[in-house]
Specification:
alpha/beta, Spore Coat Polysaccharide Biosynthesis Protein SpsA, Chain A, five-stranded mixed beta barrel, two-stranded antiparallel ribbon, 10 helices, globular, binds 1-O-phosphono-alpha-D-glucopyranose
């Protein structure tokens, strides 16, 4: 069974200070729903209903969000306002939630490795909630990626073309397109300077990982910016032909930046 999805949520959210001084960036709302809820809904829709948060100090509001608020239930239960809780209630009822703390911020690879005990020996999804994704066809991006995994049985990363000016902000990949939109990756470089980028295909914050990734992460040296990089661990799998890049069908907003956040808000408002 593939039911687990890991959410690294320990990051500080410095680009949203002072809003994120005492509040997790993942709780910033797009319209009336926090970013993290969009990510959890996407995972649950893909059948990944065991939600594992790799969390940190100042992130307790996330735990409270995915729990019952007795005071709220008591005060608005039975009134018309109750309907505002129906979405989060049914999400809570259809998922389990586990939490483990990343004690030091040593990179995305380190955050994922922190989830090893909760994930165990299973294939699992990873969602970076900052990357807000909407599927084009009704299927969310994680659902699309699990379909690719089912067919090829190896790690899958979501990719899309990025602008030259953005290349140094992403993991950049290249390889051979083996099917429409599916690329067998042979090169993966974390945040390269433009001149060293093997393509303009950037990794977006959605991954399906085979559990041997933990064995690789455990012995991985720090990479770009002195951090343990998931891109470097994946490159080891890619050197054996075991990573696919998937050009997802849909739209992605970088909600880690104020500009992307505003675009996502406008997009959601227009389609609400
Ligand atoms: C991380 C990954 C990077 C990926 C990006 C997607 O970087 O390390 O490879 O392209 O997420 O959002 P971060 O943005 O966390 O620095």
């Amino acid at each position: 069974m593939k039911t687990k999805c890991l959410f690294p949520v320990a990051g500080y959210g410095t680009r949203f200070l002072p809003a994120t001084k005492a509040m997790p960036k993942e709780m910033l709302p797009i319209l009336n729903k926090p970013l993290i809820q969009y990510g959890v809904e996407e995972a649950a829709a893909a059948g990944l209903t065991d939600i594992c948060f790799v969390t940190g100090r100042t992130k307790r509001a996330i735990e409270d969000h995915f729990d019952i608020s007795f005071e709220l239930e008591a005060s608005i239960g039975g009134t018309k306002k109750e309907e505002f809780l129906s979405g989060i209630r049914s999400l809570i009822n259809s998922c389990t939630f586990s939490y483990t703390r990343q004690l030091q911020m040593l990179g995305l690879g380190h955050a994922i490795l922190t989830g090893k005990k909760i994930i165990g020996e299973e294939v699992f999804g990873v969602v970076l909630a900052d990357d807000l994704c909407f599927g084009q066809t009704g299927d969310g991006v994680m659902t699309q990626m699990m379909q690719v995994y089912e067919k090829f049985q190896c790690s899958v990363v979501a990719v899309e073309e990025v602008a030259d000016s953005e290349v140094s902000k992403f993991g950049i990949v290249s390889g051979e397109e083996i099917e429409d939109g599916i690329i067998r990756l042979d090169t993966m470089i974390e945040k390269p300077p433009l001149a060293e980028a093997p393509s303009r295909l950037g990794i977006i914050g959605r991954y399906v990982l085979t559990p041997d990734i933990f064995d690789i992460l455990e012995y991985l040296e720090p990479g770009r910016n002195g951090e343990i990089q998931i891109t470097d661990a994946l490159m080891q799998q890619a050197s054996e032909g075991r990573v696919l890049g998937y050009r997802f069908k849909g739209q992605r907003f970088d909600c880690g930046s104020v500009e992307g956040f505003v675009k996502a808000t406008n997009y959601c408002f227009a389609s609400s």
